[in-house]
Amino acid sequence: MSTLPFSAYRIYQLLLSFSLALFIICTAVQITLLFKPLYYFDIGYLNIEEQSGLDRDTITENYNYMINFLLNPVPQEFHLPSLDYSTHGAIHFQDVKRIFTAIYLLIAITGIISAIGLYVNIKKKDFLFLKITATALALFTVIPLIAFVLDFNTAFVVFHEIFFTNDYWIFDAASDPVITILPETFFLHAALLILGLIAIGMIILLIAGKKLSKK
Known about the structure:
- This protein has helices spanning 6-34, 37-45, 48-52, 56-71, 87-123, 128-163, 184-214.
- By secondary structure, it is mainly alpha-helical.
- It is elongated.
């Protein structure tokens, strides 16, 4: 057990749990962005070719460009290879890119903090933070899931209003046909994948906590 005063120790455990939870959440988001097969499946499942009037090669070419653009933290100009786009559309993708660059930084920072905290706590045989982290992740998973089930469209709008300071995310298909290959249901599938990955992380923490406590 730590020699820190109880209040300071409790704050330390909460901060460590918050860092680990944030690391798992950000990692889940990044893995989902990397997992292009989800979109490839949805091209057929959601009839994106029919809905957009574009062939599969054009759809995948532009989708792959968007994902690679977002994954690359180096500043660069947005330029879809074979679809028109507006100035506001390009600005929105730059805004999204900044969010994912921030997620990269959060993964690095919280990963280092969590690794150090894990090392210290395992040496002290104190695994309470794993349970606290798992509880926080459970809440983070259940609350959005309920919101998605009740009304994903509203949750989708609220998300954009929180993370963006403009309304450039509201695309007009006439000037930004890229929106025709990004149906809202695909974002629902991506959100569910993120929550599923977080749930897996939560289960791993609980199992690890039980096994480590027995040693």
